[in-house]
Amino acid sequence: MLQTISELFELVKVKNPLIHQITNMVTINDCANVTLAIGASPVMAHSPEEVEDVVSHAHALVLNCGTFSEVTFQSMLKAGKIANELGIPIILDPVGVGAITSREKYVKSILESIRIDIIRGNESELDCLAGGIGTSKGVDAIHTGRDHEAIANKVANMFGCIAIVSGEVDVVSNGERTVIIKNGHPYLTKITGTGCMSTALIASFASVTKNLMEASIAGISTMGIAGELAAKCLSDKEGLGTFKVNLFDVITLMDGNMWRRGVDIFEEY
Ligand SMILES: Nc1ncnc2c1ncn2[C@@H]1O[C@H](COP(=O)(O)OP(=O)(O)O)[C@@H](O)[C@H]1O
Ligand SMILES: Cc1ncsc1CCOP(=O)(O)O
Ligand SMILES: [Mg+2]
């Protein structure tokens, strides 16, 4: 598995897949740039008149709910249905679900109407999808003490997809297999968008392989490893600004060898 995942880095760079992202207005620019940094090509198109055209040329579709509206919802449904028909993988980032009641209704409706391949969110978001009560007040996770593996497993089985609960430790489950990734750094929680960017990375890898479990592991671990290396390069006088620049530098330079040297992963049996 480690060998095939490490080969995905080169594959993304060679294929330069198009990643259609219907996403939020807070982190949209960072998501576009991280997609470029890993070697894929982003296109952020939101309007219902445009999504049909755009998604039909795409190799993966991201639905990110960070700043939601009725129009965005309609665009997501339209793009999602076409992606399903064309066999394009869909990656959902249910930002803030559980914190905002109307958003929960919309996200559940998306999950009923479209086949989603991968869901990535923090503990609060995925716990809400698993049937828990919303614990977060905003987009950041509130720690419930609930078992992340159980949450990931339940979401994966409920929606027939791969579920990733990110956090201090990232849990990736397809409902049968559970993989734990220990990479990361607390600074990743101090700049907005590292979750959204992880989702964009996962989509970039999912666009070049049929093995979506491996794509999920590649995407989420890339952010964790990059966070560790970005923090390691900081001098005593540098903080979150330089950390973010370093993060982009590391993601640009990440290849299969660097990934294999940095990844801290094990599988639960
Ligand atoms: N306490 C932590 N320590 C180290 N890394 C973390 C921690 N919390 C989250 N991360 C990492 O930060 C990135 C974003 O995850 P997360 O904060 O859960 O997403 P979101 O921004 O959507 O809430 C992931 O790569 C995750 O591994
Ligand atoms: C702060 C904020 N508010 C609405 S979307 C958003 C960005 C959330 O990004 P992430 O989940 O990656 O931290
Ligand atoms: Mg998030």
Report on the structure:
It is a single chain. A nine-stranded mixed β-sheet has the order 2-1-3-4-5-6-7-8-9, sandwiched between helices. The protein has a single domain, classed as Ribokinase (UDP-N-acetylmuramoyl-L-alanine:D-glutamate ligase, 3-Layer(aba) Sandwich), CATH 3.40.1190.20. The chain contains eleven helices and nine strands. With 269 residues, it is of the alpha/beta class. The radius of gyration is 17 Å and the shape is globular. The chain starts with a helix and ends with a strand. The model has no long low-confidence stretch (mean pLDDT 96). The structure holds adenosine-5'-diphosphate, 4-methyl-5-hydroxyethylthiazole phosphate and magnesium ion (MG). The site of magnesium ion has 5 residues, from helix 8.
List keywords for this structure.
269 residues, alpha/beta, UDP-N-acetylmuramoyl-L-alanine:D-glutamate ligase, nine-stranded mixed β-sheet, 14% strand, globular, binds adenosine-5'-diphosphate, binds 4-methyl-5-hydroxyethylthiazole phosphate, EC 2.7.1.50, ATP-binding, transferase, kinase
CATH topology: UDP-N-acetylmuramoyl-L-alanine:D-glutamate ligase
Ligands bound here? Answer: adenosine-5'-diphosphate, 4-methyl-5-hydroxyethylthiazole phosphate, magnesium ion
Tell me the major beta sheet: 9 strands, mixed
Low-confidence stretches: none
**Pairing-aware structural class of the strands and helices?**
alpha/beta
Kindly state the percentage of residues in helix.
Answer: 40-55%
Secondary-structure element order, as H and E? HEHEHEHEHEHHEEEHHHHE
EC number: 2.7.1.50
Keywords: ATP-binding, Kinase, Magnesium, Metal-binding, Nucleotide-binding, Thiamine biosynthesis, Transferase
Protein name: Hydroxyethylthiazole kinase
Binding site for ATP: 120, 166
